[in-house]
């Protein structure tokens, strides 16, 4: 049998946990024994307004089930306040789940600076602020787990979501680097690209499918990635509807030219099929592996 995934004596911060995916995460973490700080500003899906009731309701649910939770109503851009409350109430921080997000969908030619800036601030700056405030405490205790919430809109692109896609794939870049920096202090960092039936996706997904994409079908992956049982780091996982899979970069073997004599745009055109051929493709895991083909080409033509 599999080892139990438990969180006794662990403190988990979940942002945007007043509903949808965040609420489902919070309920499951609490069920598994965690002390949960339920953060939610309580604004609209477009990032407007504030309402404390969202986080308060989830805390009440957790407590009614016998769990331990406190509500936090700060904006994620005030991440230091969120982390400080967890420290004041629970004395430590073990897990950060960066889940808070908004949508301000518009085609690029109609988008204004406010639509771009607010999405960036909530998704990227907010995740940075909360994680940055928790990071030194995780380093000091030589333990931490961080989950970032990316999106298939960032991985693959999506019409009308240039701001959202930019922010979501940016979070995976942050995931990769923090995974490298955090490993020596036992801080593991992963990202998910979830699909769930929430207020942010309502109206974007056919109703019959929306009903099947329950947020609760995403949370078990998040809880496992945040556990001591899991040693995965720097991963990106698509998840939803009871299915999950790991995503990795793939790159063609490409074409090499003699760097001593140079090459022309016409040479590029002549080799275009080879440049774009993914047969026998490489899957670089880091910058060293990413340079393999280029270095081999330099060695081939070395003096």
TrEMBL record:
Subcellular localization, as worded in the UniProt entry:
Peroxisome
Q: Does the keyword Transcription apply?
A: no
What InterPro entries does this protein map onto?
A: KR_dom (IPR057326), NAD(P)-bd_dom_sf (IPR036291), Peroxisomal_Beta-Oxidation (IPR051687), Sc_DH/Rdtase_CS (IPR020904), SDR_fam (IPR002347)
Q: Keyword Oxidoreductase, does the record have it?
A: yes
GO MF term list: oxidoreductase activity
All copies of domain Ketoreductase, residue ranges: 10-184
> Could you mention a single GO BP entry for this protein?
fatty acid metabolic process
Matching entries from PROSITE patterns are given as: ADH_SHORT
Q: Which UniProt keywords apply?
A: Fatty acid metabolism, Lipid metabolism, Oxidoreductase, Peroxisome
- Which pathway does this chain act in? Lipid metabolism; fatty acid beta-oxidation
Family stated for the protein in its record: Belongs to the short-chain dehydrogenases/reductases (SDR) family.
Name of the protein in question: NAD(P)-dependent dehydrogenase, short-chain alcohol dehydrogenase family
Specify the species: Pseudomonas prosekii
């Amino acid at each position: 049998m599999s080892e139990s995934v438990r969180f006794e004596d662990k403190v988990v911060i979940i942002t945007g946990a007043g509903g949808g995916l965040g609420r489902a995460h919070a309920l499951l973490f609490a069920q598994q024994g965690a002390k949960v700080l339920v953060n939610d500003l309580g604004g609209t899906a477009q990032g407007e307004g504030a309402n404390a009731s969202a986080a308060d309701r989830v805390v009440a649910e957790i407590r009614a089930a016998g769990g331990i939770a406190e509500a936090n109503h700060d904006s994620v851009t005030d991440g230091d306040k969120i982390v400080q409350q967890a420290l004041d109430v629970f004395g430590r921080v073990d897990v950060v789940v960066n889940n808070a997000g908004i949508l301000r969908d518009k085609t690029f030619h109609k988008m204004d600076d406010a639509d771009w800036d607010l999405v960036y601030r909530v998704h990227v700056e907010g995740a940075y602020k909360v994680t940055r405030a928790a990071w030194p405490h995780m380093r000091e205790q030589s333990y931490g787990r961080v989950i970032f919430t990316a999106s298939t809109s960032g991985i693959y692109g999506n019409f009308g979501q240039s701001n959202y896609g930019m922010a979501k794939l940016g979070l995976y870049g942050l995931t990769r680097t923090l995974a490298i920096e955090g490993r020596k202090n036992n801080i593991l960092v992963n990202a998910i690209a979830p699909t769930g039936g929430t207020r942010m996706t309502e109206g974007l997904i056919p109703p019959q499918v929306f009903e099947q994409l329950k947020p609760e079908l995403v949370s078990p992956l998040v809880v496992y990635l945040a556990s001591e049982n899991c040693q995965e780091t720097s991963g990106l996982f698509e998840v939803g509807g009871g299915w999950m899979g790991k995503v990795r970069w793939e790159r063609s073997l490409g074409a090499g030219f003699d760097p001593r004599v140079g090459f022309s745009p016409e040479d590029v055109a002549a080799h275009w099929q080879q440049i774009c051929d993914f047969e026998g493709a490489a899957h670089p895991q880091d910058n060293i592996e990413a340079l393999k083909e280029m270095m081999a080409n330099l060695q081939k033509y070395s003096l």
